[in-house]
Automatic annotation (TrEMBL):
Belongs to the cytochrome P450 family. It comes from Streptomyces bingchenggensis (strain BCW-1). GO terms for molecular function: heme binding; iron ion binding; monooxygenase activity; oxidoreductase activity, acting on paired donors, with incorporation or reduction of molecular oxygen. Keywords: Heme, Iron, Metal-binding, Monooxygenase, Oxidoreductase. It holds the Pfam family p450. PROSITE patterns: CYTOCHROME_P450. InterPro entries: Cyt_P450, Cyt_P450_B, Cyt_P450_CS, Cyt_P450_sf. This is Cytochrome P450. SUPFAM superfamilies: Cytochrome P450.
């Protein structure tokens, strides 16, 4: 694999087939990491991007204020991301301080340790109800029947989304997470459907507020507009809609992939599966969830960044406005930071993994994601002791995108 680490000026990417990052990502990242700290590759949108591979460089870059999330700082024509309307695009993944600080402050209270811990019992009930529905059959697609519906249930309950409105949400989300290049109209229709969904949901919450996070955010927005906002915090209407969109999307996608990848890892490591079953209840497998997130996490790449000025990363000068991709997957298996990084072992105490990010953009929902994964795995291990893969490993299919590391399906039997 050709090293492009000494390239210091913009130019066309070296021939690099990004399919290797789909087919065998950890081997591909290991080769890139060994070849150099920074590489010029085609990004997810097909445009040139700078890929950062080593732990120390990735960690520093995640917290570097010179690397902006605001797409307006991208060079014209250099970046082509999701084409979202303003009402869905004004979210935390496109914001820098002070807007990022203001908006994040308003929603952080929903994910405090105490509030998240109070959700453990509702999450456990949701997990048991899903397992009740499939257990008699003796087999199921664990993504469709469990790892997907569980986080949707949890985040929809948190936001107060009525049961009747949840049916189509997963299909819309999937169309955006991994768009089909041969059917671009599907993703476009999903965007339109989501915009109508969130606009209608907010309108209904204004008419009939509930005891939920979205109603609280609407109250903050409307009170601030009326002059009653506290502490100078404000939400525009687009920011309100975009925040609901981001919470639902991120709360579904990443947790689904975290659970699915963790279950597959357990099926690939039977001794570990037996060991974790002996550690129940959920608190006993908390360290294992951290290791699953490090070893094969749901987000191989952090959200793209754009340098506000020429920035040196790993000895390479990255010009202002170009796209920077920080590889969390590569950093989390960097032998320069982790001992035996390819080994899956929850007792290693691998502190400092970057699966949930680092710095001011650290994953807002990480405490809830951890709780959901712990609870989902504990319920599965306790209720389905003979769990096994129901197809050959070579038949497994993953999302066709380097943005996410997740299974399309996971057929299992017990």
């Amino acid at each position: 694999m050709q090293n492009t680490a000494n390239t210091a000026v913009p130019g066309p990417p070296e021939p690099f087939d990004t399919r290797v990052l789909l087919e065998d990502p950890h081997t591909a990242y290991a080769e890139l990491r060994e070849a150099g700290p920074v590489h010029r590759i085609p990004g997810p949108d097909g445009r040139p991007a700078w890929l950062v591979t080593r732990y120390d460089d990735v960690r520093r870059a995640l917290a570097d204020p010179r690397l902006s999330l605001d797409k307006s700082n991208a060079l014209p024509g250099n970046f082509r991301g999701f084409a979202l309307p303003p009402a869905l695009d004004a979210n935390l993944l496109n914001m820098d301080p002070p807007d990022h600080t203001r908006v994040r402050r308003l929603v952080t209270k929903a994910f405090t340790p105490g509030r998240v811990e109070r959700m453990r019992e509702p999450v456990r009930r949701a997990a048991d109800e899903l397992l009740d529905a499939v257990e008699p059959a003796g087999r199921a697609d664990l993504i469709a029947a469990y790892a997907g519906p569980l986080p949707i249930t949890v985040i929809c309950d948190l936001l107060g989304v009525p049961q009747r409105d949840r049916r189509d949400f997963r299909a819309w989300s999937d169309a955006l997470i991994a768009p089909d290049p041969e059917r671009p109209h599907v993703a476009k229709e999903a965007v339109g459907n989501m915009l109508r969904f969130y606009t209608g949901l907010i309108a209904s919450k204004r008419e009939e507020p509930g005891d939920d996070l979205l109603s609280d955010l609407i109250a903050v927005r409307d009170d601030a507009v009326g002059g009653a906002g506290e502490g100078g915090d404000r939400l525009t209407e687009d920011e309100l809609t975009s925040l609901a969109f981001l919470l639902l999307m991120a709360g579904y996608e990443n947790v689904t992939h975290l659970i699915g990848n963790a279950v597959l890892s357990l099926l690939d490591h039977p001794p570990l599966l037996r060991e974790l079953r002996e550690r129940l209840p959920p608190a006993g497998i908390a360290a294992a969830v951290e290791e699953f997130a490090r070893h094969d996490g749901p987000a191989p790449l952090a959200i793209r960044r754009f340098p506000l000025e020429d920035v040196e990363i790993g000895g390479v000068t990255v010009p202002a406005g170009e796209t920077v991709l920080l590889s969390l997957a590569s950093a989390n298996r960097d032998p320069g930071h982790f001992k035996e990084p390819d080994r899956l072992d929850p007792d290693f105490g691998r502190l400092g993994h970057l699966a949930f990010g680092h710095g001011i953009h650290y994953c807002l929902g990480a405490p809830l994601a951890r709780l959901e994964a712990e609870t989902a795995l504990a319920a599965l291990l306790s209720r389905l002791p003979r769990l096994r893969l129901d197809i050959s490993h070579t038949e497994l299919r993953r999302r066709p995108t380097i943005r996410a590391r997740g299974l399309i399906s996971l057929p299992v039997a017990w």
